[in-house]
């Protein structure tokens, strides 16, 4: 089982969006995927086309009343996620029994304590960054006492990229220089993301040709190519050798560039 945290020190950068979209793509790649809303905002479900009036079950009810959308099991765990019984259940892998199973947790930007509590348990942390000076400044807060560049399980995604704007181009260059191979992907800004949410429909249905969707496909593949995640017997890239010129990130994970 692989536990992935999605969290940024800054709100509104696309953490929930990426958590949902990656969960959908991991499921499409054949993984057993559980997406956990640990944010208390109840917005993860919206990216699956679920109405605000429909509710994902909490952890205790998820076995008897599962909510599966796009082959992803959705759980609202914001009330359980700090409790020892829930953490033990994560440790035991109760929510993800199949080989190669993935649990992806959406954590609110303001909830640094939860993020730090779960970091030790996690295999990977995905931190979205947007081309916004406040988001860039907030990076220094991510690791608490630890320097952000030394967070070994953390990889970064440049979201809401828009190369028509100088700030976006410069922000990307800054982030690339800072994190190098730990910057595992970019997702372009696309108005269709807002429109899909407004219509309570999945992005794939509202805008199948969205540029964000093709970026997300590439991003999901890059993340699945990391050695920690490519443990499925039939996973297409699991036999690629570590000397593959497609890059090795500083923690030794393989990352397709
Ligand atoms: N690449 C993108 N293009 C266009 N809109 C996007 C993109 N990524 C995210 N958004 C939109 O931006 C808004 C903020 O995204 P999201 O809710 O995922 O942020 P967040 O980081 O989870 O915020 P919070 O910390 O408050 O939970 C949402 O309406 C989302 O759909
Ligand atoms: Mg969010």
Automatic annotation (TrEMBL):
Biased amino acid composition, Polar residues: 237-257
Location of the region described as Disordered in the Swiss-Prot/TrEMBL record: 230-257
Pfam families: CBP_BcsQ
Ranges that cross the membrane: none
Sections of the chain in a coiled coil: none
Matches recorded under InterPro entries: Cellulose_synthase_operon_BcsQ, DNA_Partitioning_ATPase, P-loop_NTPase
Protein name: ATPase
């Amino acid at each position: 089982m692989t536990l992935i945290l999605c969290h940024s020190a800054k709100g509104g950068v696309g953490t929930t969006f990426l958590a949902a979209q990656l969960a959908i793509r991991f499921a499409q790649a054949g993984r057993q995927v559980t997406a956990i809303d640990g944010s208390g905002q109840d917005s993860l479900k919206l990216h699956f086309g679920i109405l605000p009036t429909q509710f994902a079950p909490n952890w205790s009810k998820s076995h008897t009343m599962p909510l599966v959308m796009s082959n992803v099991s959705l759980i609202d765990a914001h009330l359980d996620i700090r409790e020892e019984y829930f953490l033990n259940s994560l440790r035991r892998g109760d929510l993800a029994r199949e080989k190669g199973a993935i649990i992806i947790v959406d954590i609110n930007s303001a909830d640094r304590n939860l993020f730090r509590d779960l970091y030790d348990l996690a295999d990977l942390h995905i931190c979205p960054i947007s081309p916004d000076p406040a988001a860039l400044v907030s990076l220094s807060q991510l690791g608490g006492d630890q320097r952000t560049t030394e967070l070994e399980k953390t990889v970064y995604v440049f979201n809401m990229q828009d190369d028509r704007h100088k700030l976006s181009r410069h922000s990307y260059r800054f982030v690339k220089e800072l994190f190098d191979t730990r910057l595992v992907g970019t997702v372009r800004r696309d108005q269709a993301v807002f429109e899909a949410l407004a219509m309570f429909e999945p992005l794939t249905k509202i805008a199948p040709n969205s540029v964000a969707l093709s970026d997300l496909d590439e991003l999901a593949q890059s993340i699945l190519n990391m050695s920690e995640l490519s443990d499925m017997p039939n996973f297409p890239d699991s036999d690629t050798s570590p000397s593959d010129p497609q890059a090795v990130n500083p923690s030794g994970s393989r990352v397709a560039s």
